[in-house]
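Quick bug: Mediator of RNA polymerase II transcription subunit 14 output formatted oddly.
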Amino acid sequence: MNQDAERHGLDMAVDILSNGKGATFQPGDPEEPIEVLERELPPVYDGQIPLGDLLSRVVQAIYAELTEMAETLPSMSDTVRKRTIADWVVKTKKQVVKLYAVAKWSRDAETVQKCMNITAFLGRQNFQFDVVTNALVVGKQNLDQARLRNHDLLTSLDVLTAGSYLRLPTCIKKAVTPQSPLTDEQVAKTLEDMEGTILYRLRMREIIPVEMSRYRIWDGRVFFTVPKLFEVSLSLQGPAPTAGWFFVHVEFPITVKGDITASQEFPTLPSGLTKRFITDEADFRLAYYLLSDQENPDAPKLPVGVVDTPLVRLYNFLQMMSLSYQLEILAYQAQRMVQLGWGGSMEVLMSTDRKTLTVVYWKRAQPPAPKGAPPPPRSRHKPLPAIGGTITIAIETVKPHSARTPEDVVLARIQQQVKLGSTKPSDEVEYLKLHATWTPSQGVLADANNLDFESMLRKVIEKHAQSLLVALTAKLQTDPRGEFTEPGVITAEKDALHLSLCTDEVVTMNIDTRTGKLNLRDVNSMAVSGRAPRFFWVTYQLNDLPDMLVEFLSNLRTKTIIDMAEEKAGYLGYQSYRSRNLFPQDMVKLGPTKGQLFIQLKRFPDHYLVLLVKAKGFSYALITTHMLPGDPLSPLTVKDIAFLDFERIKASRYTPESTTPPSSALLNVYDPRDWGSDSGVSSGFDLTVKTIKELYSYCCARVAYMNVERQFKELGIDFTHVNPGSGIPVSSELSRIQSSLARSVPALCVKAGDILSGVPAAEAAMPNIRVIPLNWWSDSESAQVITCVKLKYVQQPLGKRAGSSNIIRPSKRIIYDTKEAVVSFLSESVNNCVDEFAKEWSTVSKMVVIAREVAKMSKEKGWSDIQLLSFDLQTVEFAYAPGYSVSITCEDQLSTSGGKFDLRFTRSAQDGVADDDTFNPHDDAEPFLTSILRHGHGRLAPSVKNLITVLRDTLPMAVELEKIRKSSVEAGYHVDTFAKASGWYRLLYPSLRHALDFRLMTNQRVAILDGSHSLFKPSNVRLDTGAEADISKLALQPIPQFATVTKEAVAEAAAGGGEGRNIVDVNVGVICEAAAVGLVAQSLHRRVVERLKAVGKS
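Here's what came back:
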């Protein structure tokens, strides 16, 4: 190697003096051109790039940014667009300026390149000089060792005297001249003799430790076997009694488990330096007292009366070696674990004497305190221990009585007495063993047949983890709040705790064997997205503050329960909130709670179903909120709180599959006692979608009832709760379209006299009225209220809309059961249902009264021509004379003016009447006839009688006037007839200054008078002559010779068959019976027309 270095140094030296082509420069040679020398320089391109690449990359980047801006700028606002362009210009300008500077610097790139090449050349030359120098130093060192051997004087004298060699060196003879090998028989005989000698020595002289009493002699050696420690073979140096023992081999019968590298690093048969050390040390201990004074003047000598015991010394040495070997294996395995992932939580320490191995596990890294920072304040929580536990494995000395059995002790004493007599042994047996100690407990042993530190550590950690889990379980189950004390909430296994957060949510808590930290994981088959960060954070908090275990798990349980409830509410489409902006004093009203979920009622936005998470279950409350007007950011005010008894709600469910209906004690789910309760009923965390839906439906029902009852309270109406559906079976179709609680929610019952006080036709209703909210269970339809009234008078519907069914629906809001005489009023607004009912009832009740009175008059007075033609609670149509009928409807019956009646008069075709002549002359008097009903707002029945009487009495008069009008039109003399009141008609002549008045009088009499004659007393106001004359010109004028006309008309009527009809001339007119009005009217009209025409001609 040194010669190669010298040769390499010389080559380098030649290269330095050469020109690179093998030639050497000599003085006087011409110099080579500079270009040639520059080509000899080594090129160096470290840290340099071509300017073209840099320029191309910058240009491409600018172009790409411009392209992107061209696509994105149109979609930006003007302000954002300007700001983006300005930022891009500034950034691009900086890049271009930098590129310009680089381009300026690139002018000197060639010079810089040449300098870098020269620098590299000089560096290479410097390296060559260093190599040559080192080669010269190595050569000098090697030459110093080159020395001639000493002169062979004996051989020189022989050659000088004898002229030739007389002998060979002894070393050559030994190395060249072979010795005669022993035969197999000689070898076997020698070994057999040696085995006999060994057996004799062992049986008669040598003190053998009891632990080495298991031995065998074979192949000229004795093999001692000590279980779990070693197996060693020895032999004697010769047959002499003083011949010593020498070491042959040793084997450690240790079974190494776990990592295979430990078996490779620590074989059972030591080799190399290890075996060399053991051999030297064993031979030294065996021959400790056998060294002669000449070889070792300082050799120890045996005292008088002491016998040498080399096997005891060997046993002590090999025992220590075996235990140390095992300890080193364990230390190696521990170090391997640290390297393979346990480094952050485990530390391995070995004592300086290599007799004690200390392993610290579950080590916690303490964060370093900042320099100069004050010490942290003392926390109320117990500080975390720096380590979880410690395993100490040490080679310890034990007492003889614990190391040996009584039999072994007796055998050792007998051997010593037999072989030594009164003398003493030079050495005593040392009693050693590997003792492993675990700090929290005792009794951990290291087994040489299963030497696996990882397995040992895992067993210790497993036991440690189990004890910790037991302590955690006890802490959770003995917590005074009782949140985790229910059976089934905590399930303990060997290495984990299963904590049931709610019905389908189970979290597993175990201890990491490496770090000793608590781990939480969700074992639910359906993993919920976003749950992992929560578990990570809770795990971090638990490991940081384990004293807060109950609080952290309680918070986790609460959040999981609220998540579950929120998720199931979302399945149903309900809007839910985890918190609402409520006043603190209002939150206190909900009582102590760990969490809450507010579910807003869709149909009633100011009401919320509140799920309160308590220690052992849910509590449910219904709250009514109110927002301060004019301030949308102010907190909500809680106006009312009602706690719900879920067990009673659940018990009140009723389905067709139920064998028996709920008991009457449980049917009344709506319990007024709930309003005054200050705490809900806990029902566990078994919250299903059906439960939420029923609670939601129940709250909607309660709000609907609250709104209805509020209206009753505002009006001062007393009400009671009844259950009309109890005991009545439910069909499967009905159960599918309504809530299972629908039949359990009661109805409201009010007195007709209270709710109909001041309402027209209140006498038509029975004493009790039932009010039932509906559709509060529906998600698609708004809540409704149906009010059921049973009529006193059963009047069957008639007409086209009556139909053949017992149930008719004359309008969207009214349903009539003709069989039971029950009218149901449907209100779409829960908040205004009472007012809407009163409005609808005023219409229906009047129609019922009118229909009843018409039917009564037909029967009681024997008026067969009065017939009820149509009746459907909205309209009453009846005939008051043959061919003449009227249809009555009403609306706005609650107004202070008495409402409005609408009368439609019709005429049907009769004998002698043309089909197209369907005009009913009463139609002209409709406004006045309507007032008869309107003025009878308080008592409608007498008004109906009055209306029918007036219609019948005025019919001849109205019919005759219509005939006069038609005949006059045909004759070309146009007159006008119109009604002045319900019983007052006027016949106005073309001059508009003369008229005949037809007035209905009592006892079916009719007065036909001159229109200019007033039946009322004249006014006391006196006018001057001129004013009186002007007014008289505007008023109707007396019919000329009207007195004569009346006399002639009466006479003509009497002659024409009017005798006995009480036709009387009263000078200003004629009074007659209604039946004779036709004769008198025609006669008077004809004569009046003649007089008016005569006056007009003159």
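Actually, after a second look the formatting is fine. The chain has 28 helices and 37 strands. Closing.
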